[in-house]
Each structure stands twice: as C-alpha cells, then as structure tokens.
C-alpha cells in the first residue's frame, strides 16, 4: 500500500515514538493505528463495522459512545460509554471568555463537573496563560479526563486534574479566595423530565439529572464560588433556557454582581439552547 509523503513521514515518526516508549510489538500496534486512522485495508470489514455502528445509532446509542471520540471546537477528545458527551453548546463558555471577560493573565481557573475535560481544555487552548484545574469525582469520567489532559499536552495544551467531590468543601480549601474564574456545566435536568433517549437511557444518571428542579448542583456550586473566588472573580454556569430567571436569582441571593444570562443562537440546536449565566464577586 502506498502512502503520501506526509503520511509516510507520520508513520516513520510513529514507529520511532512507539519504539522509544517501550511498546513490545511496535509493528502490530502501528498496523492497527494505520488501519484506524490513515487507511482501512479491508474494505469489507470496514463496511461491516460501518453497518454495526449504524444499527447502534438507530438504537439511540450516542454517536460519541459508538466512535469513542468527539470533536469539541477542534479538540479531539477521547470518550466512551459511562461518560457524558460534551455538546457544542458548551463552547459558549470559552467564547464568553475570549470576547467579553476581564479574567486577568495568570489567573487560576476551576472547571467543575469537568467530565472529559472539554471546557477546561478549551479554555487552556485559548488562554494558555491561565492555570486550569479540571475537577471530576466519577471514577470513569476521571479516567477519561486524565487521558485527555495527557493526550492534549502533546499539543502544548496544559491543565491539571483534581478528583474531588463537590460536596466535600474541605477538598477545595486550598483554593479559598484565590480563583479568578469558575466554570461549570453541571447536570441541570429536573428528575421527572422526559428527554431524548440518548441522554435519558445512555448517559450516567448523575451527569444529566439534579433534583426536582434540576438545580441542586447549581446551588451548591454558587455557594462554593463565594468561598473560592477572589474579589473580581467570575462564575459561569451552563443551564437550560427555561432556568435563566431562577439561576439569576440564585446568583443574586449569593451576592454576585454584573449578573446576566447569555444565549448563543449560533451553537443552539434542536436538542436545546446554548445558555450560560455569568456573575462577578465584587464584594
């Protein structure tokens, strides 16, 4: 099989890297990786696997769980069954950071409910000066989080991973009044609400639902943010469009200022709107 000069150069470099890493069967692993990412060698098998994937998708298995990957604003993230698949809607957070925020150079950032690390890693991509820590508690999600952090470090995208339960305030005590930005896409669907089977049946329950009104974890994050943020620090939380008024009230009750809800129509779709509420700790 012939390859382009660029592909052949990549294969040669891959062989060198696999050898240096101590991989015990370099050529077999390399053949598998070439077949997966550069050129399918057996077209019949490729068609069979394609139809298996189609049937799984028809059974409403999420696409990301079928292919084991998702592209989040140019970041190729590894994901799988048992983890929440980041949606394009969450790009609104780093778009806000790029275009509207006043988060200073070198600030500490916490990405809570990080899952695969999509939001935190996107922030690290666009603002490499920031010190990003992605926080996740679920064992499966944390494995994917650390894997994506280590993977994208090869692109000079840097973030830290912290395994911590958001209900354990002591786990965050070393961040008290030192954080410049907290971002979160917590579960926000009310427990009795019926949603598409991709999320209702094939995502972890705790990554989707959060109490009777969907805001239990949002309330906790807002309370924590008052303790963790420094003066002039920002809190950004993703939520459902119908929850905007209630979330703004929670921000206000906690003493935040400059509160507003932002909807991005460009990255909204039939599964829902892209919505965040932002607020600043001024006192």
UniProtKB/TrEMBL annotation:
One GO process term, biological-process aspect: methylation
SUPFAM superfamilies, per database record: S-adenosyl-L-methionine-dependent methyltransferases
Residue ranges of domain Methyltransferase small in the record: 99-194
Keyword hit for Plastid: no
EC annotation from Swiss-Prot or TrEMBL: 2.1.1.297
An example molecular function term from Gene Ontology annotations: methyltransferase activity
UniProt entry keywords in alphabetical sequence: Methyltransferase, S-adenosyl-L-methionine, Transferase
Enzyme class: transferase
Family annotation (PROSITE patterns): N6_MTASE
CDD domains on file: AdoMet_MTases
Catalytic reactions on record: L-glutaminyl-[peptide chain release factor] + S-adenosyl-L-methionine = N(5)-methyl-L-glutaminyl-[peptide chain release factor] + S-adenosyl-L-homocysteine + H(+)
InterPro entries named in the record: DNA_methylase_N6_adenine_CS, HemK-like, N5-glutamine_MTase, SAM-dependent_MTases_sf, Small_mtfrase_dom
Name under which the protein is recorded: peptide chain release factor N(5)-glutamine methyltransferase
Organism: Photorhabdus asymbiotica
């Amino acid at each position: 099989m012939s390859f382009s000069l660029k592909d052949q150069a990549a294969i040669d470099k891959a062989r060198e890297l696999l050898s240096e890493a101590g991989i015990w069967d370099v050529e077999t692993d390399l053949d598998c990786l070439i077949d997966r990412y550069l050129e399918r060698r057996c077209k019949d098998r490729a068609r069979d696997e394609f139809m298996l994937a189609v049937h799984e998708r028809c059974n409403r298995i999420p696409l990301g769980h079928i292919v084991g990957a998702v592209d989040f604003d140019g970041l190729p993230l590894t994901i799988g069954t048992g983890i929440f698949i980041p949606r394009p809607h969450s790009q609104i957070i780093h778009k806000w950071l790029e275009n509207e925020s006043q988060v200073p150079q070198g600030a500490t950032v916490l990405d809570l409910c990080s899952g695969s690390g999509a939001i935190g890693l996107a922030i690290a991509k666009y603002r490499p000066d920031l010190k990003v820590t992605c926080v996740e508690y679920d064992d499966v999600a944390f494995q994917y989080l650390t894997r994506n952090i280590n993977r994208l470090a090869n692109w000079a995208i840097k973030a830290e991973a912290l395994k911590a339960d958001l209900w354990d305030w002591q786990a965050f005590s070393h961040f008290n009044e030192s954080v410049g930005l907290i971002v979160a896409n917590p579960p926000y669907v009310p427990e009795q609400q019926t949603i598409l089977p991709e999320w209702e049946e094939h995502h972890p329950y705790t990554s989707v639902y959060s109490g009777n009104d969907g805001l239990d974890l949002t309330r906790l994050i807002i309370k924590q943010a008052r303790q963790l943020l420094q003066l002039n620090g920002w809190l950004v939380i993703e939520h459902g469009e119908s929850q905007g008024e209630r979330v703004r009230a929670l921000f206000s009750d906690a003493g935040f200022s400059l509160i507003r809800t932002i909807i991005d129509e460009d990255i909204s779709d039939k599964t829902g709107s892209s919505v965040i509420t932002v607020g600043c700790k001024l006192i």
